[in-house]
Amino acid sequence: MAERLQKLIAAAGLASRRQAETWIRSGRVRVNGDVAVLGARADLQHDDVRVDGQRLCRERLAYWILHKPRGVLTATRDPHAGRGERQTVMDLLPEAARSFRLYPVGRLDVDSEGLVLLTNDGNATQALLHPSLGTEKEYRVTVRGRVGNETARRLRRGPLLEDGPMAPCQVGPRHFDRRRETTTFVLVLHEGRKRQIRRACAQLGHPVQRLLRTRMGPLRLGSLASGRARPLTLREQRALLAHARRRRPEAQGPHP
Question: What are the tens digits of pLDDT across the range 167-223?
């Protein structure tokens, strides 16, 4: 069955759909010898699709969950390696995962910890990341000082950040540690802007001391130790793929 080229490229584990669209626009993709155009379709059983001269074929899909420690980059490589290479999530994967062209889904900044999904499934990636599809992400947040009711209410409503208002979120019960002078609570977001939790809490007068992502859609970090990775169980894979099917753009209808 013929499918859009960007979907085929993502399914092969080469890039996200958005990145694949950029490759098509720049002339890096050919179908049966002709330079492809955005919107073109192909069937890998019958068509010769090449990216930078390399023939496209479907790769077996793989899904790994990693507990990212603080100080590790959520990236396939350090973009500033010339200044002294830093450790990335790819460095923490065991040999069994390195036979696949995995890439991390979404961002988790270098100072944050917790759940990172690594996969070569572009459809699942799009379902988890697309801002219009509302995938929940859950964090355990520890901030400086005592968070009062009014501050929690303002956080739930979404404070105004420099790049626009933060979407409303869920704030769980707050636990104040008198000895450390910190408050810990669970925060659930439906968007994923750069360092938004840290920026929002700092704006409200409570700088983040620790930020741990514990859930992403149907996937939970559970008891996975920091720095360790494991493949998703069959049950987790099924839950993730069901989540992706429910949240793919075609199932949601057109968006402006």
Answer: 999 999 999 999 999 999 999 998 878 899 999 999 999 999 999 999 999 999 999
Token representation of residue 150: 């009014």
Q: Which CATH architecture has domain 3-55?
A: Roll (3.10)
Q: Kind of pairing, strands 208-216 and 113-119?
A: parallel
Residue range(s) of every CATH 3.30.70.580 domain in the chain: 63-132+222-252
CA dihedral 41, 43, 47, 53 (to 10 degrees): 70
- Nearest alpha-carbon partner for 4 in 15, 22, 17: 17
Amino acid at 125: T
> Can you tell me which residue has the tokens 């699709």?
49
pTM of the model: 0.77
Q: Is 108 helix (H, G, I), strand (E, B) or coil?
A: coil
Q: DSSP letters of 4-24?
A: EHHHHHHHTTSS-HHHHHHHH
Which residues make up the CATH 3.30.70.1560 domain(s) of the chain? 137-216
By annotation, the residues acting in catalysis are 109
CA distances to 66, 87, 111, 250 from 63, rounded to whole Å, are 10, 21, 24, 23
Q: How far apart are CA 208 and CA 122, in angstroms?
A: 32
CATH architecture entry for 137-216: 2-Layer Sandwich (3.30)
